[in-house]
Specification:
mainly alpha
């Protein structure tokens, strides 16, 4: 079962997100939330937890980006 089934596109997104605009971060969060819920339904809890952690990090980045823009 393992987390090695992470799509390569997801790995690329993680590397790319440094330069993401706030609307791109929001869109990514929505995608990851959907993927996290699907993983939990499939009983892939470790992968769902990794996605949860990534979502938290993205929310922090979004918070910083919107605060810096003000």
């Amino acid at each position: 079962m393992g987390d090695s089934k992470v799509p390569k596109s997801r790995r690329r997104r993680r590397e790319k997100r440094v330069d993401m605009e706030p609307h791109e971060i929001e869109s990514t969060i929505v995608e990851l939330e959907e993927e996290m819920l699907a993983a939990a339904e499939e009983l892939r809890f470790e992968y769902a937890a990794k996605l949860r952690d990534e979502i938290r990090e993205l929310r922090r980045e979004l918070d910083e980006a919107t605060t810096a823009a003000e």
